[in-house]
Each structure stands twice: as C-alpha cells, then as structure tokens.
Recover the amino acids of this structure.
C-alpha cells in the first residue's frame, strides 16, 4: 500500500475513533486487532513506537479526555476495576525490574517497545471499558466482535484462493519496514499455504479467531435462521483456522463452541456444539489430508524447536530467578522468541513477573465471568466473554500471546464486555480484605514457602558447550559444516539421551544452540557432584565410541554446582506474593463466595445506593419507567 494512502487511512481511522458514534469507535478499535499488523508503523512517523494500533488507542484516550471536559464522560464510564489495577502493577514492575534492574545496562531499545505495549494494553482496557459502558445494548458489542471476525476470515479466504499475503500488501510500498513477520509472503507447512490475514504470523491469526468464535456463534444463533446461520458461521471460522494450519487452534474452535453452550445453558448452543464435535470428528477420520495436515509429523521442527529452547532459556534465567534478565534481554541472548508467554515472562522478569502475569490473567477471567450465575442475557454475554478469555489463556502456552500486541487487545475487549455485563446484572462487588487479613495471608504463605524451600531435595548439575564437528571438517565451506554438524549433533544427542535412561537418578538435556554447526548444550543433573562428573564422562565417552569420526570438544564448561530447583528455591517469594494477589482479587472468603455464585444486588434501589443499570436489550428509559 502506498505510504501517503496509509497515512490518510490512519488519520481517518483516528479521527473516527475520536469523534464518531460509540459503536463505530469501538468497532475500529476491535477490528484493528485481526486486520492491522501490530508492527505496522505510520509512514513518515518520527518514532517507530507510533504504530497504527497505538494511534487508534491514543485517539480513544483523547476521546475520553474530551468527553470528561465536555461532561459526557464521568465516573460511571471511568470507574476502575481489579483487572486494570493488576495490569497497572505489572506495568510498573516491568519498568522497575525489566529496565531499572536489568542484568545488562544499555539503551532502552526493545525494552522500550515492551513497556510501550504494556502501557498500550492498559490504555486500551480503559478506553474499551468506557466505550462499552456507553452502549445501550451489549449485543451491539457482540455483533461488533462477530462482524470483525467475519471480515478477518474473509481476508483469510482471499489469501487462500490467491496465495497472496494481505500483510505483505500493506508493507509492499514501505521498504523501510521490511523484516517483520507480517511483511513477508505467506508461509507454508508441508507444502500447504498458511493464511494469516492481518496477524503477524499464522499461529497468531488462528488464536485471534478462537476467542471471538463464541461471539460469532451466539450472535448467529439468535438470528432469523438461527441454527443454520450459526452452523455456517462456525464452519467458516473453523475453515479459516484450518487454512492457517495451526494444529493447536483447530480443535480449540470446536471446544470453544461446546464450552460457550454449556456456560450459557442454551439448548441451541449445546446442540450446535455437539454437531460441531461430530462434524469435526468425521472430517478428521474421512476427509483425505485433514489428519496428515494436523499431524505433528507435518512439521516436526516447529515442535522440537520449542523443547530445544526450553533448557537454554531456563538455564540463562536461572542465574537471576527473582528478577529475570530484563526486558528484551532474551533477544540479546540470541533467542528471538520463547513461544510461551509464561516462559518469556520468567526469562525477562523472573518469578515476580510470572506471578504477576498469572494474577493479571486471573483478574481478567474473574472480571469476564462475573455474571455467569446471573440470569437472562447477561449470563449469555458472560459465557461468551469467559470462553474467549479461557481460549486466550490457553494460547499463552503456544506462543508469546501477551507480548504480541493484537492478542491482548482481543483479551481486554472481552474483559470489558464481561465486566459491563456483570455491572448491568447487578453483581455484588467484591470488597477489599482488611489489612490484618492481608498480613496474615502473607505470613502464612511465607512460612509455607520457607518450609517448601527447606524440604526440597538438593541436586547437583553442570552444563557444557560442546562441538561435534571434527577439526578436519572445520576447513570446509560453512554450508558443509552446518549440514554435517547438524547431522552429527542429532546423532550424538540421540545416543546421549538414550544412554541416560540407564543411569538412575540422572537427568540430561541435550539441545541444539542454533548458533553454529554442530554446537550443542549438554546439561547433566544428578544427586551429587560425583555422580554428575561420572555421568558426563560416561555419556560423552559412549557417544564418541558409537559415532565414527565424531570429536566432542568442550568450549565452555560450567563448574558443578549444587542447589534446589528454582521453583522451590524461590517459594518464599512467590508463595506470599501469589496468595496476597489472589486475596486482593477475590476479596474476603465470604465476598469471594458471593462473587463466584454471581449473587446479584437487589433490583430495588437501596438507601444511598446506586440505581439499577440496564442489561442487554434494556434501554435506560425502560428501566426507569418500570420502577
């Protein structure tokens, strides 16, 4: 797309978010998630931080500021929530630990992008919550989600037919922005093109679709041709995910349809979910190519690389388990991605970051499902939002879902809709616990953490950087060294792993570092230092004996050290931090019980209390007239 046209469209979209009707502004904010790559920077921008996504969020913030100045936005729209507080704490801690106490002091660089994205998420939640609160009918929000999803699936269908990338088209006239995942042509798996619409990569697109599928299904099933339209919409969304060839997301579409029906307690949705299971099962068993395309053998490298990264990343982060390496330091260490949100958080912010991210996700889930035990439309809306949030939480185990901006936008939109559904259902708010309860919880959890640390077994471990390439081969061309080194590495790791099974109490990780041909990382763990040294000698000697021509030369060897597993070593910190965080999110035990039951406030106006708020499909005027 030409740069001037992209600038014009960005300005127009920002202006609509600023001045258009509430539904239009919300549709633009939600639609940008699956349709505009997060890495797309506004052309001629003085800073790479000014992406199109950030422009829309800033326009939403400006809309709220103008609304406050004009009196059209006030406390009801801006009332804070626990999810906002949890996200704000994560932002502050990320700045302090991830930048102020980073292991390697240097320019802000990538850490600045990470902080900007976290701030963007907080602002997005504030704006989305205010806009949804202004909607007279929550079905408008669900229809927006359904329409956005259909548009994204339509783009994916065009990509499937033409073989051309929508993202590559957006970046085609922006050579200075080439290099991001979204700017490349469509990728392939096992000879099959993988669609991605406006996402950065195919897996992300699939997991952007899944959380929005419940909204599409519920809106469709309540249309004129209910079940037929819902079945067609579900099939279309399922095909879009299938065309992305994302193995983890394809079954998640079917599961999402089933779960939303069960949570909403709607017979039509349950029947649709049952039909989806049957159709998906028959397609898997009878349609040629479906099982092969979704099999792990279609692209074994995509699975193995995740496990290969695990040990080196955990090893690097274990040197600073409480505070992590710092924002962006994982990239500096040679790993562009961790492929798991919690693993990335641990590497960058340590145990503190992992606990806070888990608390943020718990807050999102509690807020989205606040009206699950209410009645009527509010329960259906809560079921849609809860299913979508659960799907998003599952996606954090498949890719860096919390650091790639578009996914969190979908998450916080669903959280905002669920929160407003709870408010309009009159769900009783959860009061904050008293200070003595917080202190007692922290002390008890701290004592339990100390006990876990003291009782955890002690082990010994060492790590070696070893090359498998013989000296005679190092004079060959780099490509020959890479091919031969990779072959020797795979053979050596296979032998080492198989021989370790015969050594009781010995754990071995043998992984390809992907930094040079034949260079591997070998980590050996046992109960004592002596057993570690004996195991290293036996494993390396056995590999040399069984692989003709291999030479194992050690470049780096970490001295044998003793200690406890990181999870137990850090228990005195994460146990009280997590316990206090959960207590603050759920309130006192009695309040938590009422919240989980979704106990509503009485509809009559209490003395000095707030008036009841309208639910989906009930304008404020009708509520006032009915009292």
């Amino acid at each position: 797309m030409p740069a001037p046209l992209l600038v014009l469209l960005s300005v127009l979209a920002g202006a609509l978010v600023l001045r258009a009707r509430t539904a239009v502004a919300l549709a633009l904010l939600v639609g940008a998630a699956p349709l505009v790559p997060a890495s797309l920077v506004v052309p001629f921008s003085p800073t790479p931080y000014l992406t199109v996504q950030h422009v829309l969020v800033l326009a939403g913030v400006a809309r709220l500021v103008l609304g406050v100045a004009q009196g059209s936005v006030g406390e009801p729209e801006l009332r804070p929530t626990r999810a906002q507080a949890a996200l704000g704490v994560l932002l502050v801690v990320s700045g302090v630990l991830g930048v102020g106490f980073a292991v390697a002091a240097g320019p802000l660089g990538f850490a600045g992008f990470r902080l900007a994205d976290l701030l963007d998420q907080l602002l997005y939640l504030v704006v989305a919550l205010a806009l949804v609160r202004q909607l007279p009918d929550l079905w408008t929000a669900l229809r927006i989600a359904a329409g956005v999803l259909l548009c994204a699936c339509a783009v994916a269908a065009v990509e499937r037919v033409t073989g051309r990338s929508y993202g590559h088209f957006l970046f085609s006239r922006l050579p200075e922005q080439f290099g991001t995942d979204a700017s490349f042509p469509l990728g392939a798996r096992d000879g099959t093109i993988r669609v991605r619409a406006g996402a950065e990569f195919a897996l992300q697109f699939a997991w952007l679709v899944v959380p929005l599928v419940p909204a599409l299904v519920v809106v469709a099933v309540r249309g004129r041709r209910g079940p037929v339209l819902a079945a067609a919409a579900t099939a279309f969304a399922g095909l879009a995910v299938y065309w992305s060839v994302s193995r983890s997301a394809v079954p998640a579409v079917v599961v999402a349809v089933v779960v939303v029906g069960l949570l909403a307690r709607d017979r039509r949705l349950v029947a649709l979910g049952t039909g989806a299971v049957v159709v998906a099962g028959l397609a898997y068993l009878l349609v040629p190519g479906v099982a092969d395309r979704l099999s792990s053998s279609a692209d074994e490298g995509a699975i193995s690389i995740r496990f290969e990264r695990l040990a080196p990343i955990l090893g690097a982060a274990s040197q600073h388990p409480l505070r992590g390496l710092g924002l962006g330091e994982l990239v500096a260490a040679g790993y562009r991605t961790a492929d798991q949100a919690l693993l990335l958080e641990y590497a960058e912010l340590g145990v503190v970051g992992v606990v806070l991210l888990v608390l943020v996700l718990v807050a999102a889930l509690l807020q989205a499902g606040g009206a699950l035990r209410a009645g009527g439309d509010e329960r259906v809306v809560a079921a849609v939002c809860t299913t979508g949030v659960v799907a998003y939480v599952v996606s954090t185990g498949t890719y860096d879902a919390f650091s790639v901006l578009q996914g969190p936008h979908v998450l916080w939109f669903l959280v905002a809709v669920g929160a407003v559904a709870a408010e309009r259902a009159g769900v009783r708010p959860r009061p904050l616990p008293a200070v003595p309860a917080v202190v007692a919880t922290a002390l008890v959890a701290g004592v339990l953490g100390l006990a876990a640390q003291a009782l955890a077994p002690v082990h010994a471990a060492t790590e070696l950087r070893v090359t498998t390439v013989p000296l005679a081969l190092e004079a060959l061309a780099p490509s020959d060294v890479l091919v031969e080194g990779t072959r020797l590495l795979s053979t050596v790791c296979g032998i080492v792993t198989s021989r370790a099974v015969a050594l009781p109490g010995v754990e071995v990780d043998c992984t390809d570092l992907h930094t040079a041909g034949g260079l591997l990382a070998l980590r050996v763990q046992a109960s004592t230092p002596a057993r570690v040294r004996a195991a290293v000698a036996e494993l390396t000697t056995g590999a040399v004996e069984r692989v003709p021509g291999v030479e194992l030369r050690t470049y780096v060897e970490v001295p044998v050290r003793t200690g406890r597993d990181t999870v137990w070593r850090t228990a005195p910190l994460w146990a009280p931090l997590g316990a206090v965080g959960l207590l603050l999110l759920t309130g006192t035990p009695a309040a938590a019980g009422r919240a989980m039951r979704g106990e509503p406030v009485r509809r009559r106006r209490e003395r000095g209390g707030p008036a009841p708020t309208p639910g989906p499909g009930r304008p404020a005027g009708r509520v006032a007239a009915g009292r």
User: Anything to note?
Assistant: Confidence is low (pLDDT under 50) at residues 590-627. The first helix runs from residue 3 to 19. The chain has 25 helices and seven strands. The beta strands are 188-189, 192-193, 459-467, 507-512, 519-526, 553-557, 561-563.
